[in-house]
Amino acid sequence: MKTKTESLMAQSDRKLLSGREYRGASRIDGPLVYMRNTHPVGFGELVEVVTPDGARRSGQVLDTSDEVVVVQVFEGTDSLTLPGTGMRFMGEPLTLPVSEQMLGRVMDGLGKSRDGSGAVHGFAERDVNGVPINPTAREYPRDFIQTGISVIDGMTTLIQGQKLPIFSGNGLDHNQLAAQIARQAKVRGSEGDFCIVFAAMGVKHDVARFFTNSFEETGVLDNVALFLSLADDPSIERTITPKTALTLAEYLAFDKGKQVLVIMTDMTNYCESLREIGTMRGEIPSRKGYPGYLYSNLAEIYERSGKISGRAGSITQLPILSMPNDDISHPVPDLTGYITEGQIVFERGMQARGIYPPINCLPSLSRLMKDGIGEGMTRDDHPHLANQLFASYSHVKDVQNLASVIGEEELTTLDQQYLEFGNFFEKRFVNQGFDEDRSIEQTLDLGWEALGKLPSEELQRLSDEEIAEHYGR
Amino acid sequence: MKERIIGRVKRVNGPVLIIKDITDAMMMEMVRIGEQHLVGEVVKLYDGLATVQVYEDATGICPGDNVYGSGMSLSVELGPGLIGTIYDGIQRPLEKLMEASGAFISRGLSYDAVDHGKKWEFTPVIEAGASVHAGMVIASVEETSRVQHRIIIPPQYQSATLSEIAPSGSYTVEDVIATLVLPDGRQQKLTMLQKWPIRLPRPVSSRLALKQPLVTGLRVIDTLFPLAKGGTVAIPGGFGTGKTMTQHSIAQWCDADIIVYIGCGERGNEMTDVLREFPLLVDPRTGQSLMERTILIANTSNMPVSAREASIYTGITMAEYYRDQGYHVAIMADSTSRWAEALRELSGRMEEMPAEEGFPAYLPTRIAQFYERAGYMRNLSGSDGSVSIIGAVSPPGGDFSEPVTQHTKRFVRCFWGLDRQLASSRHYPAISWLDSYSEYLSDVKQWWNDHSEGAWHENRLRIMDLLQKEVRLQQIVKLVGPDALPDTQNFILEVCSLFKTAFLQQNAFDEVDRYCSVEKQVKMLSVILAYYEKGLEAINKGVPMVKVRRLRAVQEMARMRLTVKGDELETIDKIQLRLERSIDQIGGIYEN
After folding, report:
1. Counted domains in chain A
2. For a Cys staple, A442 with which of A438, B372, B392, B565, CB 3.0–4.6 Å?
3. Does domain B456-591 have CATH number 1.10.1140.10?
4. DSSP secondary-structure letter at A42?
């Protein structure tokens, strides 16, 4: 048996062996390459894949044993041959060179330049997979971000350091909303060092262009780092894109003290790529064929947000995901909802009625809202007002159901007032323009205006003082 | 046993390793992998190979790395200093990890679970020369201002003679504080520290019948669906329905002596919230900080999956240790679904044949084993203690027919189903009064009736009956509108709607409302029922319902949960009196 020193020697041997090139794969299957007869290779190691014509691609060790090593190749396995494929195992995990110069650049999913203005330089090498933040080191997020969008600021408030996904569907206005938030978001009273990291996974070219144009028009492009892995790029690259983006975000937030907003679209594409690899490796699938570790895997992405006590920066995540067939119980939105701190849910019917943003606030939720609103943060009446709007709007839905059975005329006067309230709420409070930037005061006053359609004794969640101060003004 | 090499890594597949050249590895033995010394556990032995589960991120482990055996099962340290600490899933103190590696958790770190250097004031309660047995209390240490830590003889020493015991004074947990002479003549030195394997329930003398409720201060739970001390309950609910909020409320206000809160695969920020909030909150019964009775385990969703699987056992073992000292312990596990999913993930990596939805076939057995560790016990020392388990379940898509919810339902006796619609209209706690049940009603009936002048059982049945009637009436209203119902039936809707806003809803952020004493609950229920009875009487005399519901006393009643403080309960009696008088008054007008 080997002794401890022998094993240490073996480790230094490995250091020497790393970088050595092996030729000849034993099997190529989708994005996976199997290699036999290598030195012992570490799990998760970075791999440089050399194609028969000498080009370089990067990959990562997915499974390692003393017989065979399985490598996933991020740029795809096109044109690789069994005898002609070379591999160098680098002896270290996949890292990303990061720097502030990456702001203003357009990169691919691995952080390499795709904007034609030369190589992207980084100063610090960071492990792409990230390391979990110690829960005791976290600072509880409580700084209100004003997005200028009433239904978000008023009802599902976004907090700095939160992860708040947008659950959308095909053909809904989620991109517009994300761009509008990116444009308008600010923490009031502090001119924070704001920047945006944008990760696109499997989105169409015109969507990517929409975002670039939108950033360009508002002049924020210099403060945006874009990681694009588009629909026609190899699907495997999508599995690494959010991780590279977040690695840069962590550097900007926790080393450089910036307030980083990370927009990731579309998480469903990311999960589908994971499923693709899982099935290819013959893993036992769980729900709808997605791998059993999807929850842990998504958590490793979403949990890379927040604030750390004693450090200035923060990471706020705004992932966008499309619900296949608008089904909120589909594994991707479902697991996401269990990890993120709330969700913003789009409703097709609202978009059809011409309401933008088409957010249905009833299933939407911001878990961090309770500590970020109220006196000293937004306005003292905000918590109760939001509560009351939720309760009243939820009653509107009941009344609408009733009206569809017995007809509006048969409703009691009170219920008709509720319909009127509901109408005002959707058309005036929720609905707003692409460029309309409302302050939180405007939002709250609009909320009171909506409640003005109801008799005051219906407002049981507001205190008498609040009613006296704001009701009917 | 000294650390020894038990084999070398053959294959790495995420958190599951295959080890070859196995020498004398034991099943469930704790091992360290490679020169980084990552923690793992042997879960299978076959043909000279072993399967090992790694409790840390496996990146960088190579085939050929040495695997060192520790000679014992994955165990926890038990002794003074546990309370008030926050651990990860394998009992590493997170604050110590932060000192060592900063804001991000590095790998291969190992720390004592309790501070081995700290001195405790030790007071023996037994004299040298006495014959002692397993579980017997030999000394006590003031762990926090509300927890007297009782030093007990470890369960493995059935009977012995106490040949020496240290005098009162300050000792660390490593100092020898007693010496036993075992029946075979061997001497055994004891410290205040014990180790116990997490997967093995600690022995007890016998199980007792449950008869006391675990009072949580949440009205919908205590009054409608009570949990007994030593009982088990599942809280299932889709995301956003308030599982975590309910768990937090119970952890804050329930009348257990010790709380073990396990954040199993949950959000990092939520654990930070607990960490920040608990020390600030004051227990309404003792006036002391809630952290003085709480142990936290935080294994957030991005921490390694195997440690998530272990965290549940780590928590319950610590709970059992305090139970053995004669305490009532409540365990919150948030969420057991994440634990079941960890089982699934590991089972998948081990390429086991899956059963329902990819979960391993042994899932129900594991769930049963976990929940059966709860109970109201007669300890080895002769004292009584209990462990109650409150397990959150996160069914995918909020669908209660999925395997984890279904199997959990088989092994718990109380069920608080969370309802998405209630949560959407911000009715919290969103515990559905239609889906939920408690099998402990008959067990705690006596206790509750003793605390409510015999009224509880009867009143509870009456309000449940009204709620059932309301469902049927609502169906009619949906078809024909409320106007079609006679006032007597409309009044049932009115009372139920009042009951929901004034009684079932509870605001966890309101100073007054977040904790509701048993006495207040009893009075509140009785005034609402009096409203129904009196109101119905008046309506039968011909009083229109609107007149009854506009009474000032009814408005007062609607707000009593917020306005009546715990020490001014006579106000509710006054409201009831005013209510009855004013209904009689308008009734009088219509009689003539």
Report:
1. 3
2. A438
3. yes
4. -
Q: Cβ(A141)–Cβ(A368) under 8 Å?
A: yes
Tell whether A357 and A466 lie within a shared domain. Answer: no
CB contact under 8 Å between A295 and B13, yes or no, is: no
User: DSSP string of B514-578?
Assistant: T---HHHHHHHHHHHHHHHHHHHHHHHTT--HHHHHT-HHHHHHHHHHHHS-TT-THHHHHHHHH
Closest residue to B61, CB basis, from A43, A135, A137:
A43
Q: Which secondary-structure segment (H or E) carries B232?
A: strand B232-236
Beta bridge partners of B387: B329, B375
pTM of the entire predicted model: 0.89
- Regions in chain A scoring below 70 on pLDDT: 1-15, 191-192
**A306 in contact with chain B, both atoms CB, cutoff 8 A:** yes
CATH number for the B4-73 domain, one of 2.10.220.10, 1.10.10.10, 2.40.30.20, 2.40.50.90? 2.40.30.20
Query: Which CATH number belongs to the domain containing residue A31 in this structure?
Result: 2.40.10.170
When scoring B59, B303, B341, B550 by the number of chain A Cβ atoms within 10 A, the one with the most, hence best to mutate, is B59
> Would you state the structure tokens that stand for residue B508, as one six-digit string?
């966890």
Interface touch B265/A133, C-beta < 8 Å: no
List, as ranges, residues 350-409 from B with C-beta within 8 Å of A.
351, 354, 357-358, 394, 396-399
CB contact under 8 A, B269 and A254: no
Whether residue B98 and residue A387 make contact (CB cut-off 8 A), yes or no, is no
Q: Tell me which fold the domain B120-191 belongs to.
A: OB fold (Dihydrolipoamide Acetyltransferase, E2P) (2.40.50)
Pick from B591, B518, B527, B585: which is nearest to B559 by CA? Answer: B527
Query: How many Cβ atoms from other residues are within 10 Å of residue A146's Cβ?
Result: 20
Among the partner-chain residues B63, B97, B357, the one whose CB lies closest to the CB of A134 is B97
Judged by CB atoms closer than 8 Å, whether chains meet at A135 and B35 is answered as no
A285-332 residue pLDDT tens: 888 889 888 988 999 999 999 999 999 899 999 999 999 999 998 999
> What is the tens place of the pLDDT at every residue in B549-586?
888 899 889 889 988 988 889 999 999 999 999 999 99
Q: Which of residues 136-155 of A touch B (CB under 8 A)?
A: 136-141
Question: B46 in contact with A at a CB cutoff of 8 Å?
Answer: no
In this structure, are A42 and A114 located in the same domain? no
Write out the residue range of the structural domain in which residue A311 sits. 97-372
> DSSP 3-state assignment of A247?
helix
Percent of chain A with pLDDT over 90: 60
One-letter amino acid at A237 equals E
d(CA A327, CA B154): 54
What ipTM is given for this predicted complex?
A: 0.83
Note the residue count of chain A. 473
Q: CA of A333 to nearest chain B CA: how many angstroms apart?
A: 9
A181 CA: distance to closest CA in chain B (Å) = 23
Please indicate, yes or no, whether residues A39 and A129 belong to a single structural domain of this protein.
no
- Which chain A positions have a beta carbon within 8 Å of B57's beta carbon? 129, 131
